[in-house]
Amino acid sequence: MAVTVAEMSQHDRAKSAAERAAIDASCRGPVLVFASSAVFWLLAGSMLALLASVKLHVPYLFTGSAELTFGRVRMAHLQAVGIGWASLASVAACLWLMCRLSRAELIYPKMLYLAGALWNIGVSLAVVGIILGDGQSVEWLDAPPYAPPFFVAALGIVSAWTVAVFRRRREPHLYVTQWYLLGAVFWFPWIYLVAQFMIFWSPAVGVVQPIVNWWFGHNVLGLWFTPVAVGTAYYLIPKIIGRPVHSYYLSIIGFWSLALFYSWAGMHHLIGGPIPAWLATASTVGSMMMFIPVIAVAINHHMTLLGHFHRLRYSPALRFTVFGAISYTLVSFQGSLMALKSVSETVHFTHYIVAHAHLGAYAFVTMIMFGLFYYMIPRLTGREWASSVLIRIHFWCAAVGITTYFVALSIGGWWQGRMMNNPDVPFANIVAYLLPHWLTRTLAGLMLTIGHVAFAISFVMNLAGWGKQRSGGPTFFVEPEKKT
Amino acid sequence: MTAVDIALFATVVGSIVLFGGAAALALGWAFRDGQFDNFDQGSKSIFGPDEPVGEPTDAFPGANL
Question: Residues A333, A446, A61, CA angle at the centre, nearest 5°?
Answer without folding.
Answer: 110
